[in-house]
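ok trying this again, last paste got cut off
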Amino acid sequence: MADGDAEDKADRLKSSLWYSIGSIVDAIALDQDLNATPQFIGSLTELVWSQILTSGADLENFAKYTIFTLEVLAKNDTDQSMADMRVEIPSIRKMYCFW
């Protein structure tokens, strides 16, 4: 059921994207006295959709390799309290990171 919900959500998002792109293209076409076909709007929507998916995947990968400030401080400080924090970092990451 979760896969169906995810697909339904993706379809709704893509439909909204198609509508938004269509509105923008129509406004520009009217302003410049041009004609945009539904195939052009559909192709542009597919292009933008694929770019969104690629950017989303890039952001997810970047987030997995971001170094937290707390890790840098724990690495460079020899204070005992910071050494204790170094032990706690994995549990802190589990609380705030969802990957």
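PB: full thing came through this time. The CA atoms of residues 12 and 82 lie 48 Å apart.
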